């Protein structure tokens, strides 16, 4: 059987060069149309392959996916499909790859099946890909943590003493995670300017984005069980782009001493297509050298970071888009495996569909920072946009779009995008 990641594979479906969704990617998502849905699908070029329809035509019959077939493909989230386990995800991705290969007539030559199984992406509405029971946000970029430390604490001691020992994180809010395209309402909240005598309640004046990548748990654990670092990646289904919208003024007033709360929980956005860890295999890279060496339970060999190019663009209402940042997921100090092993190290149980986000992904240069806070340096260096305006933080009507892709040896696979527009705060 051919390796679905083989750069030489090509499909009988026309796929534009530079598409995020060549035959080597095959990310999973959930969609609906006026006539059908919700259904699980796989992105291929400009199309969605309807997995329920594929199953109905019998193309999965010999895969032994269990009694939940085919209704597992007719669900509002990927959770039940993911719960079937890695052998099932691999078998489905492998079969989809075979069906879409240029030299396989099985689907291509059956006109009725082809019409039923392929839907144009322009005709579908994408839903949130998973129903996360739990959401954790980490803080794993050393550049980001250093920048925040310089701005808010002490430039000479920007990193707190624990940072190089623990993948720092906090438990976030799963219920307000929304799919790309959902508008984000500016939150009201309590904030206190440094020179104000007392706090006040009202619309956040410092609304921000955070460029992050999230991973989705594919294999849970029982309460009390831990995950040795060498098995951590077996618990990961795939990756999404993640915008952890943040209200800096609310955050900076409320976060002492228990950490982020309402400055974060008003909304986070995920991209609709989950790129599997299997598809990302060719893009493994080494992370930064960890100094001092982590404690034994977090120590790992080989390459556990992934070379994903990331971009952030801001588009004011009715205006042109400006790319304001270009960063890379491969820069992260703590790997996803280390995050997962650390999360489970106290016996806390992981659940299928949990979402763990990386933390803001900032690079070392001024054009690779992953938040407005850093790009405009806490409002002291307003960021110019293509329409001639400038930003310290986000304004109502601003659309923030994040994109991500991997590229190597002529093979390019992408994440699509996560986008959201800022709406005015609710009155009163
Ligand atoms: Mn964050």
TrEMBL record:
<protein>
    <recommendedName>
        <fullName>fumarylacetoacetase</fullName>
        <ecNumber>3.7.1.2</ecNumber>
    </recommendedName>
</protein>
<feature type="domain" description="Fumarylacetoacetase-like C-terminal">
    <location>
        <begin position="136"/>
        <end position="422"/>
    </location>
</feature>
<comment type="pathway">
    <text>Amino-acid degradation; L-phenylalanine degradation; acetoacetate and fumarate from L-phenylalanine: step 6/6.</text>
</comment>
<dbReference type="Pfam" id="PF01557">
    <property type="entry name" value="FAA_hydrolase"/>
</dbReference>
<feature type="binding site">
    <location>
        <position position="212"/>
    </location>
    <ligand>
        <name>Ca(2+)</name>
    </ligand>
</feature>
<feature type="binding site">
    <location>
        <position position="268"/>
    </location>
    <ligand>
        <name>Mg(2+)</name>
    </ligand>
</feature>
<keyword id="KW-0460">Magnesium</keyword>
<feature type="domain" description="Fumarylacetoacetase N-terminal">
    <location>
        <begin position="24"/>
        <end position="127"/>
    </location>
</feature>
<dbReference type="GO" id="GO:0006559">
    <property type="term" value="P:L-phenylalanine catabolic process"/>
</dbReference>
<dbReference type="GO" id="GO:0006572">
    <property type="term" value="P:L-tyrosine catabolic process"/>
</dbReference>
<feature type="binding site">
    <location>
        <position position="210"/>
    </location>
    <ligand>
        <name>Ca(2+)</name>
    </ligand>
</feature>
<dbReference type="GO" id="GO:0004334">
    <property type="term" value="F:fumarylacetoacetase activity"/>
</dbReference>
<dbReference type="InterPro" id="IPR015377">
    <property type="entry name" value="Fumarylacetoacetase_N"/>
</dbReference>
<keyword id="KW-0106">Calcium</keyword>
<dbReference type="InterPro" id="IPR036663">
    <property type="entry name" value="Fumarylacetoacetase_C_sf"/>
</dbReference>
<dbReference type="InterPro" id="IPR005959">
    <property type="entry name" value="Fumarylacetoacetase"/>
</dbReference>
<keyword id="KW-0585">Phenylalanine catabolism</keyword>
<dbReference type="InterPro" id="IPR011234">
    <property type="entry name" value="Fumarylacetoacetase-like_C"/>
</dbReference>
<dbReference type="GO" id="GO:0046872">
    <property type="term" value="F:metal ion binding"/>
</dbReference>
<feature type="binding site">
    <location>
        <position position="137"/>
    </location>
    <ligand>
        <name>Ca(2+)</name>
    </ligand>
</feature>
<feature type="binding site">
    <location>
        <position position="244"/>
    </location>
    <ligand>
        <name>Mg(2+)</name>
    </ligand>
</feature>
<keyword id="KW-0378">Hydrolase</keyword>
<feature type="active site" description="Proton acceptor">
    <location>
        <position position="144"/>
    </location>
</feature>
<feature type="binding site">
    <location>
        <position position="251"/>
    </location>
    <ligand>
        <name>substrate</name>
    </ligand>
</feature>
<dbReference type="GO" id="GO:1902000">
    <property type="term" value="P:homogentisate catabolic process"/>
</dbReference>
<dbReference type="InterPro" id="IPR036462">
    <property type="entry name" value="Fumarylacetoacetase_N_sf"/>
</dbReference>
<keyword id="KW-0828">Tyrosine catabolism</keyword>
<feature type="binding site">
    <location>
        <position position="264"/>
    </location>
    <ligand>
        <name>Mg(2+)</name>
    </ligand>
</feature>
<dbReference type="Pfam" id="PF09298">
    <property type="entry name" value="FAA_hydrolase_N"/>
</dbReference>
<feature type="binding site">
    <location>
        <position position="255"/>
    </location>
    <ligand>
        <name>substrate</name>
    </ligand>
</feature>
<feature type="binding site">
    <location>
        <position position="360"/>
    </location>
    <ligand>
        <name>substrate</name>
    </ligand>
</feature>
<feature type="binding site">
    <location>
        <position position="139"/>
    </location>
    <ligand>
        <name>substrate</name>
    </ligand>
</feature>
<comment type="similarity">
    <text>Belongs to the FAH family.</text>
</comment>
<feature type="binding site">
    <location>
        <position position="244"/>
    </location>
    <ligand>
        <name>Ca(2+)</name>
    </ligand>
</feature>
<feature type="binding site">
    <location>
        <position position="153"/>
    </location>
    <ligand>
        <name>substrate</name>
    </ligand>
</feature>
<keyword id="KW-0479">Metal-binding</keyword>
